[in-house]
Amino acid sequence: MNHVKKYGIVLAFVWPQLGFAEEIDVTMHYVGPTEGQVWLGVQQGIEEANLQGGFLGQKYQLEVVEPEALETTDIETVLLLATDDEFTMKVAQTDEYAAVPIINLNSTSDKLREACLPNLFHVTPSEQMRADALAQWQEKNPDKPAKAQSWHQDFVKFAARQLNSRFEKNQGEEMSDDAWAGWAGTKMIADSVVQTMQYDAAFMLNHLKTDLVFDGQKGDNANFRENGQLRQILLLVDNDNKILAEAPLRGFKGGLDSLGKVTCK
To answer: Which residues are 60's β-sheet partners?
Structure first.
């Protein structure tokens, strides 16, 4: 599979024909609103997954599940949640989903991270991560107010410009924090299928915990901490909505792990 990544589309065209992999259909299940930025981000992720997967004989679809129907739904690969904290915690603690990766797309709650549930992953940054990013900024710039964001429509580094352009063209809106989380949570699953050619839920759960290498267009390949939080840079933005800097700032020990809690201890 490393050869697919190395040679990209050229080999992707012939990969299925050479008999290295059968055509597969991957269904991602989603509970949450079907409007708004998280939803648009998920849609963007599915569109890009199908564009990439088309060369490999892979098809991706999203099945929206109503909360009351979840207990009768068979989750084959992943469950994406854009719900309140209580519902997220309840689902992640249900024995039926113990071997299913559950991805939190919208909640910043530190309590969800502190629960350290082995099947629960958090794409959006925690409250503590944002607070730590602000603390770093204020230590170096005490007279300059800022806010911490996980995304910005004017971010251009690490191919972020291209992602912002694709999103605005396809979805008709600028990409926000919530949209990035929806896109990333969906796209990292599709990228993992491309890399491993497997999509069983139990396999995907282990892969996300131990082997994920995801390019979220934010610099550094992202992976998950012990507490399920996705490592990532944050953007510091001023009151005029201009990007000031990227956190972690230089000079602070720990790199990405200087933002938020790292372990379950």
So the answer is: 26
